[in-house]
Design a protein that fits this description.
The protein has about 400 residues and is α+β, with helices and mostly antiparallel strands. The chain is about 40% helix and about 20% strand. The strands form four sheets. It has a seven-stranded mixed beta sheet with strand order 2-1-3-4-5-7-6, with helices on both faces. A five-stranded antiparallel beta sheet has the order 10-9-8-12-13, with helices on one face. It is globular.
Amino acid sequence: MGSGKKFRKESRIMDKTEAASAVPEIQCFVNTGSKPVPLDPGAPSSISREKLPGKTELTYGQYLGSVSRLLSQNSFHILRELVTKLPAPTRNLEEAISIELTAEKHGALYSVSRLLLRFPGQTLRFAVNCAFSPEQQAFLRVEANLLADLRARFALPYLPEHYVCAEAPGLMVFIAEWFENHHEFHLSAGDSDAPVIQIWEEDGSRKVLEEAKIPALYARAAKILTSYLDPESFSQIYPWHHAAGDFIIDANQNPPSLKLITVRGYRPLLSRNSDSHDKMLGALHFFVNLCVRMRMDRLDGVGKLAWAGADCLPGIVSGFMDAWETKRKSSTLPSAEEIFSLLLALSPEELLAFAEVVAADGMVEADEAEFLLPRLRGCMVELSDTLKKHKS
């Protein structure tokens, strides 16, 4: 009896070891801006010993090595769980031709790698969000929960699907959907005074977005944020920022496809002494903040604060209306036209005063006030002109 148990135990260990050996070893790369560079700790000038951008003291070797070990442990248990979460889990991990992990982007809150599982005739892509410090892990945990909650509550396709969370000492990973062919975009200095929108291609090049597609970009971004607004509490996805690359675009589709890849918070923005039960006040506050914040970016994502031209406003208004009218069918929200009429009924000074309150409620970064407040009067004039043309 005892020897039989021992034999069965050893058989299980062998089966587990053989299964793990049949899965390809994870290959690690670093995206240098033009192409992925293999991580080779043995090379004399290997990128593995370079530090990640930002405040972290981690090297690429430490970063990718720790993530790779976590994904590989227990016979690739995390990756096996991952493939079962897909809409049509038809693949066994042993069928994989290769597994690739590429460091893509690093921020103050977490780092992002792209995971590729290559099978015959199919490549599966995922975003692996990685947090190391306790503060980063706490933030990532909140974001993972928010994404799962908003996906379930609104059943909309604009946020990444939440798949797997896993932790090890000093590391947390959250694996989510990777939006293929979607790229970061930013305002960039053009030939004239007005900035252009540049799309950051995968090969490191940048392509100027066609002027004709700009309204559709802003319309889709406004529609996405409006779609996730809670019509009762006026909780909304916030903060978000173009400078952080929160929205990504596939400009090859017509109209362009836009996705929102992060949810840092979900809360009302009205000041605490405001009457949050006043639907008209909440609606106007949301709309004005949307029109103001949508115009802000940083040049090339990291430079000085930048301001989009007024030609983006018709798209913002259109996208807001599209989502708002859909939302109000099942709520007691005022119509978009009622919101626009109230805004136009305000005197220029009343509208400016309201916009200043809204801007203060929505301030995200310390240097925004000095940049934003001098532009509010012109922004409200341009918004009023846009709404007048809409109503005419």
